[in-house]
Amino acid sequence: MFLDNFLLIAQQVLVLFILIGVGFACGKAGAITEHASKKMTDIVLYVVTPCVMVNAFQRPFSMDMLGQVLLAAVVSFVILALSVVLVRAVFRDKDVARKKVLQFSVVFSNCGFMSLPLQKALLGDEGMFFGSVFVAVFNVVVWTYGLVDMSGDKKALSLKKLLLNPGIIGFAAGMLMFLTGVQLPVFVSEPIRHLANLNTPLPMLIIGYYLTNAKFKTAFTDAGAYIAMALRLAAVPLAVLFAMAPFGLNRNLIIAFVIACSAPTAATTTMFASKFNRDVELSVGIVAASTLLSVATMPLVVGLAYTVCP
User: Fold this and answer.
1) Domain locations in the chain?
2) How many CB atoms lie within 10 A of CB 73?
3) What is the DSSP code (8-state) at residue 278?
4) Class in CATH terms, 2-308
5) Local structure of 279: helix, strand or coil
6) What is the spatial distance between Cα 271 and Cα 20, in angstroms, rounded to a whole number?
7) I want to staple 111 with a disulfide (CB 3.0 to 4.6 A). Which of 35, 79, 115, 169 is the partner?
8) At what angle do helices 236-244 and 63-90 cross, to 10 degrees?
9) Cα distance between residue 248 and residue 59, in whole Å
10) Distance of CA 166 to the CA centre of its chain
11) What angle do CA 24, 194, 33 make, to 5 degrees?
12) pTM (2 d.p.)
């Protein structure tokens, strides 16, 4: 059973990594440049992500499903909050710039770019539905706690940036339509669905491009980075799995959250490290190395989730 699940998930992860490989090759060949990657990132963040959220919530309203959404939101917040407690206990480095990067790299996974495509492939629309809830909570936490913690300044908190975050806007629009029972006409829903489908290839190409400039040596020669990646790729998702499994929760909810938590470190880590003068080189190394290692760890962790939650 475990081997069958492992092979199934490994195949889906391999598809993502082939796309990453194409992005890597395009970067090396100059077909994707720094300017192009930034524009592609803007398209994903400001167009594709909101479409993913709206598309995920285009489903008939029911009180049961509303309860599942609220439960998913609460569980998402608890996971992130406990992750914060964990990293504060583990990482006590006197070098604040380094410590902040290590802590951030564990708490925040690449739950949008890497997880949503896998949740869709393995669990269908319901998997992406729960994944979208996790991403929405993730965006709230990263632009509140994450921003303040990485900057070290509460004044960096911006309600405007939080409310105008495209992921939050997309989630709010999708949730509103779900609650009111509004079903978009085909000529609107079909373009949204096609744009949402870009959430698999475009992010993978972008990740592949950024790997062309990655400094793996930084992560693989730093003891703290090893600990951070072990927590990010194995300890946190396994803790989530075994904490949720005994409560008889929706199977797809559990697996979707394990996928989100087993994803590599979020690229936001480097973005914030650069903006707030933290250890940028370490952040780039952890993002790149955890992405590379996740090709092996995600099938193992998610395969175990399928075994525990048959």
Assistant:
1) 2-308
2) 16
3) S
4) mainly alpha
5) coil
6) 20
7) 115
8) 140
9) 24
10) 15
11) 25
12) 0.89
Give the separation between CA 139 and CA 49, rounded to whole angstroms. 12
CB atoms near residue 233 (< 10 Å)? 27
Nearby residues of 180 by Cβ (< 8 Å), 6 or more positions away: 61
How is residue 284 written in tokens?
């780039």
d(CA 58, CA 125): 10
Tens-digit pLDDT profile for residues 94-149 = 888 899 999 999 999 998 878 888 898 889 888 988 998 999 899 889 888 888 88
- What are the tokens at 120? 């869709």
Amino acid found at 15: V
Residue type, 240: V
Residues 6+ apart with CB under 8 A from 229: 105, 219, 265, 286, 289, 290, 293
Which structure tokens are listed for 70? Answer: 């609220």
For 61-100, how does the pLDDT look when each residue is reduced to its tens digit (9 = 90+)? 889 989 999 999 999 999 999 999 999 999 988 888 899 9
